[in-house]
Amino acid sequence: MLYDDFYVKSLIQTVEDWPKEGISFRDITPIFSDPKGMRMVVDAYVHRYIATDITHIACIDARGFLIAAVLAYELQKPLILIRKKGKLPGKTISQSYDLEYGSAELEIQQGAVKEGDHVLLFDDLIATGGTLFAAIELLTGQGAEIKEVSAIIDLPDLGGSQKLQENNVPVFSLCAFAGE
Q1: CATH fold group of domain 51-176
Q2: For the Phosphoribosyltransferase domain, which residue ranges apply (predicted)?
Q3: Residue pLDDT, tens place only, 17-34
Q4: What are the extents of the domains in the chain?
């Protein structure tokens, strides 16, 4: 099934004033209840990454898990979970970050990646880049190389994808909501 940007973008809902007033939240949840949309999204990523040197897929809590888990299965790659503080068992490494509506902390398990690993970092959307930069710090701090940051949605007006690219991090998204 070919990827249809218009179709997938039409599934994404905008929830105003969530999680706080003034935020227009882009909700990918409807993609998961639409088998055609879900297939298009997964297939688009499989086709993009099947012939690459990616050795691991890392994903960010929680919506990033949903597509990344399927992608890791399809590409037969290990899946690395990057979670909110206190959600991972065992020894972890943490990194704090700011987001457009507050601050938080991410963790990864110690030894989840190692020197020479080539990682695709996946999240549901790219906003200010704070979450992604924290995740990059966690992964590269253990020696991994970020091959690309990938998301379903880019919000270019918030500047995250531009900041990533300015820091020599390749970025890919399936669709963007600019000026909307």
Answers
A1: Rossmann fold (3.40.50)
A2: 47-148
A3: 998 898 899 999 999 999
A4: 51-176
